[in-house]
Write a structure and sequence with these properties.
The chain is α+β, with helices and mostly antiparallel strands and 479 residues long. The protein folds into three domains: 174 residues, Alpha-Beta Plaits, CATH 3.30.70; 152 residues, Alpha-Beta Plaits, CATH 3.30.70.270; 113 residues, no CATH class. 50% of the residues lie in helices and 17% in strands. It is built from 16 helices and 13 strands. Strands 9-10-8-11-12-13 form a six-stranded mixed sheet. The chain has a four-stranded antiparallel sheet with strand order 2-3-1-4, with helices on both faces. The chain has a three-stranded antiparallel sheet with strand order 6-5-7. α2 packs across α5. It is elongated. The N and C termini lie far apart (68 Å). 40% of the residues are buried. About 1% of the residues have low confidence.
Length: 479
């Protein structure tokens, strides 16, 4: 008789955002690496300790795992996981809990999945049941900040030992696995933008200094839309494993390759890649480019691998970009803010991105990028002062204060000539005295007005993409 055993890590977000004291950014990075690798290491170590074949590993990563075991190994697996759960609780200050459920391989996969889910739901409701609170381990902060925060970036392999069942070891341990990118290695995105001498990852201050325009940094988070629904619709265990592995490898592989490209490798650092999501931080301008590339790659991935699956579930991705309110802000605080923006975007829409104060569809994001280039051209080619970008932003703010969203929908917008006249005045007032490019300037100005307010001769609605493009151009033009 075979059994399925499913494990999950609860409380990861709370642990990541918990205060870390000195070296908070290094500790945050180390915590995220620990949480990402635990669900990869534990099932592999479990099979190794029980003397079972690697092929019994079903899916792993993203804070959960699934393995197939003989019935005779149930007691040994429980003892292994109980020991790991105790140290995981100690390392995390009792914030992260390892819970697991198991059931016999009887009936269809839908029946097996339901039984596992019912057991897991009970444990999620009472995550502390059966576990005593462990005293925090001395040196846990040092372990996360230095061992996993910095050293793991260059490690060729990671290991596990029964003496420290909740820890990830580097280049040591009873069982070891490669991180070097071979077919047998654990998928793990860990790119870090180097500092000036290449001795360690760049700080947030260094990343901000590398941004074009305004010197600031931010966090970009992305999450696949309705991935859980797609997984629950899997008809067989093979389909479940295939989907889980396919998405995990996409995010780990593509994110690592993309961050190694010339325009990103000195500006972006990976926080984590999961089974259906990812997070990075870096220079704000690089994050905007990374968002566009990740959406393009994900769309191609879906077109290649999910054509046989009906429905839109797990075929789109939503992202959110949050900028640091100050250069010395913690990565954890900006990460949390990006998470709130991501949840807000997903609750109102799907297949979109939140950035610079607006939620845009990906098509609108591409339009905003093109309009941003037009706005900057008015400065570079036609001598307009960068101040005109702030003045145009003021038109959007005034329009919002005068008219509620409900009123705007009922009226269809406002009279267009008001905006034509004001935008023309702003552009003319900000332009240098020279007459260079007169005809081209008139054409560029007309096209810019049409992009900002539309082409209707009766009513006008200021376009959300235009507001994002203005903020984007304003940040790009900042000295």
């Amino acid at each position: 008789m075979q059994i399925f055993l499913q494990g999950k890590l609860l409380g990861i977000d709370e642990f990541l955002l918990a205060p870390a004291g000195a070296g908070h950014d290094q500790a945050f990075t180390g915590r995220s690496h620990w949480a990402s690798l635990l669900s990869e290491i534990l099932p592999r170590a479990l099979l190794g300790e029980l003397g079972l074949a690697k092929i019994l590993l079903g899916s792993s990563g993203g804070g959960q795992f699934l393995v197939v075991l003989p019935e005779e190994s149930r007691a040994g697996a429980d003892a292994f996981l109980r020991s790991a759960a105790q140290e995981i609780g100690s390392l995390s200050g009792n914030m992260v809990k390892l819970v697991w459920s198991s059931t016999e391989n009887l009936g269809d996969w839908s029946d097996v999945r339901r039984r596992l889910h019912e057991q897991m739901s009970l444990l999620r409701g009472t995550p502390a049941a059966g576990f005593a609170d462990e005293a925090p381990l001395a040196g846990a902060g040092e372990y996360f900040a230095h061992q996993l925060g910095w050293k793991l970036r260059d490690a060729q392999e990671v290991g596990w030992s029964p003496e420290t069942p909740g820890r990830i070891l580097m280049g040591a341990g009873k069982h070891r696995w490669s991180l070097a990118g071979t077919t047998e290695s654990i998928p793990f995105a860990r790119h870090a933008a180097p500092n000036e001498d290449g001795s360690e990852p760049a700080s947030t201050g260094e990343l901000a200094a590398r941004a074009a325009g305004l010197n600031t940094w931010g966090v970009l988070r992305g999450d696949v839309d309705n991935f859980g629904i797609r997984i629950r619709r899997a008809q067989t265990i093979e389909e479940h494993i295939r989907l889980s592995v396919m998405y995990k490898q996409f995010f780990a592989g593509e994110l690592e390759v993309l961050c190694s490209m010339p325009e990103f490798w000195r500006k972006v650092t990976v926080i984590y890649s999961g089974g259906d999501d990812f997070a990075v931080y870096g220079a704000w301008d690089a994050l905007l480019g990374l968002a566009r590339e990740m959406e393009r790659l994900f769309r191609r991935f879906v077109e290649t691998n999910l054509t046989e699956f009906a429905g839109p579930e797990a075929k789109t991705i939503t992202m959110a970009l949050s900028l640091a309110p100050a250069e010395d802000a913690s990565v954890a605080a900006v990460f949390e803010e990006a998470g709130r923006r991501l949840e807000a975007a997903k609750s109102s829409d799907k297949d979109c991105v939140w950035l610079l104060g607006r939620t845009l569809e990906w098509k609108q994001f591409a339009e905003a990028a093109g309009l941003r280039d037009q706005l900057l051209r008015m400065v570079a080619d036609f001598g307009c002062s960068p101040q005109y970008l702030r003045d145009l932003c003021g038109i959007y703010r005034e329009s919002q204060s005068r008219m509620s969203k409900r009123q705007a929908r009922k009226s269809g917008g406002e009279r267009p000539w008001r905006y034509h006249r004001r935008i023309r005045r702003i552009l003319s007032a900000s332009r240098e005295g020279s007459r260079r490019g007169g005809g081209d300037y008139q054409k560029a100005r007309t096209a810019l007005i049409a992009e900002l307010i539309g082409r209707s001769a009766i009513t006008v609605k200021l376009r959300p993409a235009g507001r994002v493009a203005l903020e984007w151009a304003r940040l790009s033009a900042e000295a």
